């Protein structure tokens, strides 16, 4: 560095100046991304048996609390991802999804310990669990891609944190929407495969997003 | 605008300048960047960046401001936005410094004792000392052994040349060389034992 004097650098930057369109606000971007998630969930509600799902979710408190946790994690992680992508925002935004994440993980784990077989459900087999993994991956990938594209309008100074939050938001959204097509009881192996799929998505987000964000945002 | 401006006024001017820069006003942009330099330097110093690297942090931050200028929201204060970028680049610099420190170790002893690839003056003096000492020891040998050692070993002459020079037979020269070297080895070993 320091190839030029500050004066020369400022002159070069000023000469390179072009009008720019101000980045959309973090709240607006989070709202748009969540609107896409809501649109997908509405579509899935149309093609799935919503009554059966509601019947199953309300049969045991850990089920609906886990879904509440994953839904809140989706919303809060998306807000946190976009907030941390704007310079000057408080980095503590990154902590926003943690309580919801704790509820989601905690009550999902409790589901494995429950003896009660939920109505309209059967214990998950490995084949069914693999279907869940493909569903989570299949939905998380486009949601992650959308978030990365939107985050390119920002400038994350902590790209790893932003990517982690974005990955959590996408994976939590996919795990929430999986409930439309999850008419079987959660087992430990099922939950483990869900967790692996979510971990894979979060990890890929961290690996890919850093290079996908605006040039120079991360070091 | 001077450094003595009251902070609120400075904040307002910088925010207005950056908003104008987003519209493509190069003069306003130049003004904002000039004003940023002292703030970036102060932020870097507060973060513990070495004085020698402050300029690098200032330039890195100016470039980042340029790339991230679309993310500034004129409805919000400018200085927190600027300081967040400057802090981040200062931390990057500190991390780079730390990585550099881990890769390169300072070992003054290894530097001092590192062998010179070419023979130096000291080496040449030692070689001359050894030669002088060897010549002195050779002088103590009996005449027949001394001639054999000097001509055959030190001057590297052939047996035929040495025989012609000394008038001794080749067999006698070989025997004398063998005895002379054995005697020298014994004398030199004694010498080094005495020294050692």
Automatic annotation (TrEMBL), chain A:
Protein name (Swiss-Prot/TrEMBL): DUF1109 domain-containing protein
Organism: Arboricoccus pini
Signal peptide start-end: none
This protein's UniProt keywords: Membrane, Transmembrane, Transmembrane helix
A Pfam cross-reference name: NrsF
Superkingdom of the organism of origin: Bacteria
TM spans (from-to): 28-48, 63-82, 94-113, 133-151, 163-185, 191-209
Keyword Kinase: no
TrEMBL record, chain B:
MF terms (GO), sorted A to Z: DNA binding; sigma factor activity
Keyword Lipoprotein (UniProt): no
One GO BP: DNA-templated transcription initiation
Pfam families, per the entry: Sigma70_r2 (PF04542), Sigma70_r4_2 (PF08281)
Organism whose genome encodes this protein: Arboricoccus pini
Keywords: DNA-binding, Sigma factor, Transcription, Transcription regulation
Stored PANTHER family: ECF RNA POLYMERASE SIGMA FACTOR SIGD (PTHR43133:SF58), RNA POLYMERASE ECF-TYPE SIGMA FACTO (PTHR43133)
Protein name: RNA polymerase, sigma subunit, ECF family
Start and end residues of each RNA polymerase sigma-70 region domain: 40-99
Span of domain RNA polymerase sigma factor 70 region 4 type: 134-184
Xref: NCBIfam families: sigma70-ECF (TIGR02937)
Entry keyword DNA-binding: yes
């Amino acid at each position: 560095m320091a190839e030029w004097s500050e004066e020369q650098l400022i002159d070069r930057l000023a000469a390179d100046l072009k009008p720019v369109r101000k980045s959309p606000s973090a709240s607006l971007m989070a709202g748009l991304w969540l609107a896409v998630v809501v649109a997908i969930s509405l579509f899935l509600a149309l093609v799935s048996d919503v009554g059966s799902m509601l019947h199953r979710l309300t049969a045991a408190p850990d089920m609906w609390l886990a879904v509440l946790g994953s839904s809140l994690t989706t919303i809060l992680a998306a807000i946190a991802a976009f907030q941390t992508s704007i310079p000057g925002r408080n980095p503590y935004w990154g902590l926003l999804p943690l309580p919801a994440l704790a509820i989601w993980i905690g009550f999902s784990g409790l589901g494995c310990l429950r003896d009660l077989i939920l109505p309209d459900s059967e214990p998950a087999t490995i084949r069914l669990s693999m279907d869940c993994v493909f569903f989570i991956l299949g939905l998380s990938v486009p949601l992650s891609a959308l978030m990365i594209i939107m985050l390119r309008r920002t400038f994350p100074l902590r790209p790893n944190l932003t990517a982690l939050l974005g990955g959590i938001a996408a994976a939590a959204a996919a795990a929430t929407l999986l409930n439309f097509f999850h008419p079987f009881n959660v087992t430990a192996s099922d939950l483990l495969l869900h967790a692996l799929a979510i971990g894979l998505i979060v990890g890929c987000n961290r690996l890919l997003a850093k290079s996908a964000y605006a040039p120079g945002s991360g070091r | 605008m001077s450094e003595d401006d009251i902070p609120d006024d400075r904040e307002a001017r910088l925010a207005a300048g950056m908003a104008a820069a987003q519209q493509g006003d190069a003069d306003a942009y130049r003004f904002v960047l000039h004003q940023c330099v002292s703030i970036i330097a102060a932020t870097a110093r507060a973060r513990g960046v070495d004085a020698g690297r402050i300029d690098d942090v200032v330039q890195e931050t100016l470039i980042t401001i340029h790339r991230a200028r679309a993310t500034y929201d004129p409805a919000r204060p400018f200085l927190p936005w600027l300081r967040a970028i400057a802090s981040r680049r200062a931390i990057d610099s500190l991390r780079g410094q730390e990585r550099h420190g881990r890769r390169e170790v300072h070992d003054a002893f290894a530097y001092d004792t590192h062998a010179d690839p070419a023979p130096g003056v000291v080496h040449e003096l030692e070689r001359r000392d050894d030669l002088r000492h060897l010549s002195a020891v050779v002088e103590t040998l009996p005449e027949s052994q001394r001639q054999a050692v000097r001509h055959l070993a030190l001057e590297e002459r052939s047996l035929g040349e040495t025989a012609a020079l000394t008038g001794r037979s080749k067999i006698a020269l070989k025997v004398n060389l063998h005895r002379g070297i054995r005697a020298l080895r014994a004398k030199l070993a004694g010498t080094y034992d005495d020294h050692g």
